Structure formats: structure tokens, C-alpha cells
Amino acid sequence: MTGERVLLVESSNDARRFLMQNVLEPAGYDVLCAAGGSEGITLARDLEPDLVITAHQLDDQDGLAVLAALSELDVVPPVILMVANGSEALAIEALRLGAADYLPKPVSAEELLNSAQRVLSQYWTQQITQHVPDQLFEANRQLEQRVYNLDTLVQVGKRVTSLLDLQPVLDQVIRAAVELTHAEHGTLLLLDKTSGELFLYAATGEDDLTPEQFRLPVSDSLAGQVVQTGQPLVISGDELLKIKTHYFARSLAYIPLVIHEQVIGVLGVTNQHTSQEFDAYTLQLVRVLADFAAVAIENARLYTASEHERSTFDTILRDTEEPIIVIDTAGAILFCNPAACRIFDIPIDNYQGIPLADVVHHQDVLDLFENPVRSGHSRVSEIVLNDGRRILNAQLTEVDDFGKIAVMQDITHLKELDRVKSEFVTSVSHDLRSPLTAILGYVEMLNRMGPLNDQQRKFIERIIFSVQSITALITDLLELGKIEADFDQNVEPTYLNLIVRYAVEGLRHEWEAKHHQLDANLPDNPPPVLGNPLRLRQLVNNLLENAIKYTPENGWIGISLEAESEFLVLRVSDTGIGIPQQDQPYIFDKFYRSDEAIDQYTGTGLGLSIVKGIVDQHKGRIWVESHEGEGSSFIVMLPGAGLKPKP
Ligand code: ADP
């Protein structure tokens, strides 16, 4: 090894210079020289060389004396003794006094360098074996301590995420804080926002602190200071620190517990008997523990909140009288409430994960879940229970990546009311027809009775208009009654393109009178639908009449027909007044009319109910797409008859 410091003690100037310049320095040693024994001892004491090479014969004393003196130093260097007239006794004495090597003069350069190298290497080995183990042991101990600390943090961290019961987690946090900091006490204080006080949630140590006793005002306490500033507080020294009345500490470290940038409490370690300081490393550990505690508190809070929500929701679902069935995307049942289990004979304890069709044998329910739902929309259908008496109104909603939810409502009594009402309306309508015809007849006769003045003529026109309106209403009501009673059993393959053409021509007078442009886009040979031609004509007529009526003059009307897989899609569009978003769900209800329609257009509010009734009769679907002020499109999907297109 080079660069080691060698002290050469030699009284002969020539020998000293030769050994320094020609032997030791070229070999890389850093050479110090002394001309005598006492100078050599002084240099060895002050400069602590790694090796001393001394001649035995020196001007002031001999090499053995130098050896003896060097062995008294605090740091004893290895010594090589060079002797001119060696004897065995001298060699023994030199070695007894601690000489590392003994070289009889004349010493060759090679001998000296070999000896120096050997001695130094033995010396370093000895140094390493004597001193380094202590340092290693200490480093090892510190390392073990750190590993232990980290392990403690990992253990606490694991529990923080795995446990939702808060108290044991926080107890463990406190114990870990005390253990890692070697403090006497640990406290975990949480902020009570209503009282503005910190109360004790968990504590360790000899003190038997109880939460009742231990409440600290945020405005006037050291822990409160941490809440207010959001910064840790670390104090140690000679002064006693007042924590609360009759409760003092000599040193403390308070770390804030922070959730979403809000301080919710304080984790503290304190010493009452010693004023031990908390170093940066241990404080870092406590900070990590404080973060764990904050996460655990937040977890527990969220868990309690979600549990509460879940159980409320559970109670609502369980106690509701309306049957609810939920299935996953694969068609297996996720949930049935007791009402659904009762009505559809589903075993209440054994339905989860079972395919719906294996447990529910009611065809209407299976159809409800089977038929496609447009995403973001729900589908409504009626389910007649097996007793043939009760009727449920079922609403099915599809939730992406989750499944389908059906909520059902018993509407038996509403249906019955509706039936009674329809019967009443039908019989009243019939009864009204004859008197109305009579009124019209007499009013027309008035014209022939003699000249009428202008006012009389105006009155007669109003009577005729009103009677015609009532007659239209009665006709619609009777039509609807028939459709709802499902009287139309006569179905046949019907070609919608022919029906549409017929309607367009039939209403030509109306749409031309309003100067509308009408575009009909019809395939020549569409497949037929299986239906009642009269009703289908009524359907197309009503939609076309509405488009003409609700489109101001010079508008555009489009009517198209397309075959899509096994369906026929009819679309009637216009650039009319449009339907406000909030009215759209109700326009197929009987008598429902938008405000603008009521104000500016005559009508009964029954046309679309008749259309919807006919669509339902034909197992089809109808919906509207409309923007107020821009126009509307009514889309009807009817199942094809499964026959080939007309050649
Ligand atoms: P009526 O036309 O006799 O009022 P309908 O049942 O045919 O009754 O229509 C119900 C309501 O739906 C209408 O009053 C009107 O508000 C709205 N509506 C129907 N068709 C259209 C349309 N093409 N454009 C704008 N609004 C329409």
C-alpha cells in the first residue's frame, strides 16, 4: 500500500538520505525523518506515523530505548529495528519490547521494503481485528434497530388498511410511537369540532388518563397550537411544559393528524421525568405513524358512513312492497327482495348467482329481462300474474357493466279503475252520438228556414265547429276503447309502404294547403308486418296529421320506411314546433297536450294514445326524438311477419 507514513530514525545523514530518497519514497511511502532517538519519539507522538524504522545505534540513545519509549505512546506504531552488530540477546530484547521486525545491517533495499510491507500489513490486520468489530457491531446494532423500526411501521401500516375497527389500530399506533421514540407516554387527541376541544382518544404510559378528564381547549394548549398551525411541535429543555392543569412534561413532540388538508387531531409523545430530545429520525417515524392514524380514522369514517348507507338502503329494499329483481350481465340473480320472492316463488335464501330462468318461471318476467333496452333508457311493460287477476307494471333499467334492475308495481286497482272509466266513456260516447247528430241536423236546417243575419250565421258556425270537435273527441275515445279492449283480432301480412303511400295521398290536400315539402323515402319491396291494415293506416295517418298540424307553413316533412334485421322501422319527421323535453315522457298519455299545442292548435290529446295502443297491439315500440323549435321525429319499430318481401 502506498501513501503510508513512515518515520525513519537514523543518525547517519548518508544512510538516512539514501533510505529516504532511494528506497522508501520511490516505493510510495510518505517519509518523515529524525536524526536522533528523542526527535524520533517526539515526531512519533505528534504525527502518529503508520510505521517507525529506527537504527539501533543513534547519537543520543539506542534503538531499544526508542522502542521502550514508543511503547508508552497513546498510539503505538509498529517498529522495525535495524542493527549493525546484532546478537541473539539483542534480538530477543527488541522483540520483547515490541519490535515488529529486526534487520541486521547492512540492510538491502529489498529486505527493508519487504519487511516494511509485511509489518504494515500485519499492523493493519491487527488494527482491523481490534477496532473495526466495535464499529461494525455498532453499525449492525443501528441497522437492526432501523429494521426493527421499519418492521414496526410496516406492521402498523398493515393493520391500518386491514382493520376497520378503529380503537385497536389507534392503540397500536400509540404503542408504536412510544416504543420507537423511547418516550414515557403517548397520546392521541382528536378534535371535537362542536366544542372546539381536543379529547383523548387513546393513550399509553403509567398515567391513568381518561377521555373525560383529558380535554384540551384548542385556543389555549400546546396540542391546540399544533391544530391551529398545522405544524409539528417539538420541545425539550429544562423548563416544565404545562400540558394541562396539574399535568406537566419535560419534553414533547406533537405531530398533526391531517386528512384532506384539515387537521383532525394530534399524535403526541411526552416525557415527564427526563428531558430527552426527539431527534429528526425518530420524529420522521412518528410522522409516518400520524399519517397511518389519519388514514385509519378516515377509513373508519368512510366505512361507517357506507355501512350506514348500505343498511338504510337494505332496509328500504327489503321492506318495500314493490318487487325488485336485479341480475348481473351474465343473467344470474344478484338480488331479489322479499316481495319479489313471495310473488314469483323464488327461494329467499337460495337465489344468488343462479340464472334467472332456473328460478323464475313466469314468461312475462323472463321476456322483460330478455328484450333489449336502449342504453340510458328504461323499458316499461306489464306482467299479468299467474292468478290472472293481478297486474304489475314493471320498469327495467340496464346499467352498463353491472346488469339489469327491474322494479315492479301492483297496478291491479289502477287497471280496474281504467277499465271502469273506459266502459263509462264508451257508453257515454255512444249515448252522446245521437243527440249530437240531431243537433247538427237541426242547425243545418236553420240555414234553410229563411235568411239569417250575420250574427246568427256566426253563431251557427260556432255551434257546428263545437259539435264537430265533440264528435272528433267521441270518435277518438271510441277508437281507443276498441284498441284497448283488443277487439282487432284480424291480422294479415300487411305492406307498410303501401299504407304510407295511401296516407300521403289521402292527406295531400292538407300538406299542400300549408305549402309543406313532403319527402317520402320508401323501399319498393319491404317485408310485410303481421297486423291489422285498418289500424296500421290509422297509426300512419295520426303521425302524419300531427306532423302537418304542428309544422308552420312552408315546412318540411319526411316519412321513411326501412327494414332492419327482423323489424320494420317507420320514421315520421318534421321541422315543426318540436316538443319540450319535459313534455316528451307524457305525450303518449291520454289527453296530454303541450302548452303550445293547447294555445295554438286544436286537438283532443288522444291521437298519440291511439298510435301507442296500435303499436303495443302489434308488439312494437315507439319513441320520439325532438328539440323545441326545431322539429320532431316519431320512430316506430314493428316486428316483421317473417315472410319474404312481396315480389
Ligand atoms: P293532439 O294532436 O290532438 O293534441 P296527440 O295525442 O296526437 O294529440 O298529441 C299529443 C301532444 O303531443 C300534442 O298536443 C302536441 O303537444 C304533441 N305533438 C304530437 N305530435 C307532434 C309533432 N309532430 N310536433 C310537435 N308536437 C307534437
The largest sheet, given as strand count, sense and whether it forms a barrel, is: 6 strands, antiparallel
Widest sheet: strand order? Answer: 8-7-6-11-10-9
Give the termini distance in whole angstroms. Answer: 108 Å
Q: Spell out which ligands are present.
A: adenosine-5'-diphosphate
- Count the strands? 23
- Overall geometry comes to elongated
Average pLDDT, rounded to a whole number, is: 87
Class inferred from helices and paired strands: alpha+beta
Give the helix proportion (percent range): 40-55%
- Gyration radius from CA atoms, angstroms: 52 Å
Low-confidence sequence ranges: none
Please count the helical segments.
18
Determine the strand fraction and express it as a percent band. 15-25%
Descriptive overview:
The structure is a single chain. The protein is an alpha+beta fold and 647 residues long. The strands form 5 sheets. The chain has a 6-stranded antiparallel sheet with strand order 8-7-6-11-10-9, with helices on both faces. Strands 2-1-3-4-5 form a 5-stranded parallel sheet, sandwiched between helices. Strands 13-12-16-15-14 form a 5-stranded antiparallel sheet, sandwiched between helices. The model has no long low-confidence stretch (mean pLDDT 87). Adenosine-5'-diphosphate binds at residues 546-547, 550, 574, 576-579, 587, 592-594, 597, 603-609, 632.
